[in-house]
Amino acid sequence: MQTTNSKDDLSTVSDILTDLQTIPGIPDLETPYSRTTYPNPNHCAIELEGQSINAIITERQHQLDTVLHDISRSQTVIHGIITLQNHLLKQKKKIIESINLHKRLVSPLWLLPTEVLSQIFCHCLPQIPKLGELQPPSKLTVPMLLARICRRWREVVVDMPNLWRVLSVKVDDRNWQQAAFSYDSWLKRAQGRPLSLRLQFRADDHSTKLQRLLQSYTNQIKSLSVDFHRPGTPEFNTFRDLLALEEMSMHFNEDICADEMPASLLRSVSQLPAILCSFDVSGWSLSLSEVSSCDPVWAPLTTLGIGLWEAETVLRLLQLAPNLSSLTICILFFDGEPLNPFTHTNLQTLHISCDYYDDETLNVCDLLDALSFPTLRVLSVYGVSEWPHEEFKAFLARSKCPLESLIVRGSVVTDEQRAEYVALIPSLQFVLR
Questions:
Q1: Residues with Cβ < 8 Å from 304, sequence gap 6 or more?
Q2: In 32, 37, 366, 376, which residue has its Cα 20 to 30 A from 324's Cα atom?
Q3: Residues 271, 249: contact at Cβ < 8 Å?
Q4: H/E element holding 343?
Q5: Among 174, 279, 271, which residue's Cα sits nearest to residue 224?
Q6: Whether 372 contacts 349, CB under 8 Å
Q7: pLDDT (0 to 100) of residue 1
Q8: What residues contact residue 71 under an 8 Å CB cut-off, 6+ apart?
Q9: Interior angle at CA 343, CA 338 and CA 347, nearest 5
């Protein structure tokens, strides 16, 4: 169907074409005087068929006026053509948009039920190995990327709480008010679902800003990773309000030695909720006194990653954490008191990384002689240059554990030694070294 605008366009094109046709051709300007290269006084009195040279000049002036008028008209025509072209290009764009819109209406993807589209969007979420590796939101990643495709996708994405359950919050003094509004909008879209958050802050007032942001969501936070950029960070009182927290990790950018942790942060750790089952700490090696001061937090844990000073501290931690099934520890050994025997009945996975001040073999032997793990299935040991074969055999015989995997890095386990271990523990399937 031809619209009024299209009729006007045709009329405009017709007018332009008519104007182009009415522009006259170039007239013949030749006269007997055209090839005269120098003045001839005899010509002044000559007339050509009753027409004087002055008459020729007058005629040329009229011709010039006509050409100037035609030039002006042609410029008007050119401007009209450009205007018409721009208008036609806009029409072309709108027509293409309309075609694409109506194509989408018959596209199988457009016809997908909202429930199916939601499932597809869930599979678009990136896989994050650790919460501490989560990056701040970006327009180039899900879910924000999906929300920018079209109106329907945005409506579906915004109404999917599971897409908004994970967030990395970085406190910055620049434009914090705007950033806080964006973070709050994100968290509201989770619609009360359990949250997994990564928090990064530096300055003294940043913890206060975070508490204000999270105060409405403390009962939703299930997993939390906190980056401390300096040990002097003030007490983060929000810990004690996280009643739903089950997984927690703390990372200190500046390594903190034993007994150097501020008392305020120790209090924060000791206030973690009783339902916490997974706790990971990097950049902080705890002393025996620090482990004891955080006593309330260890008992419910089933998974723990931590750095410790002294073998004695390892035993104390195991005593305070009877429910551990997985333990990753970095131990700094040095001369300590003799160790009393201890049996942990629930530990199934143990990863040990060793560092030393003195005789390393002696310290590892002391630790092996004191410990028994009757449920241990996976054991990895790093940083022991000379493998304590006899002590490890005694450990296996004493523990009578269903060990399946032994991983040793930094020392040598021979085939003969491996055969002896398999003879003691038939479930041992492989040894990596």
A1: 278, 279, 280, 298, 317, 321, 324, 326, 327, 328, 329
A2: 366
A3: no
A4: strand 342-343
A5: 279
A6: no
A7: 44
A8: none
A9: 120
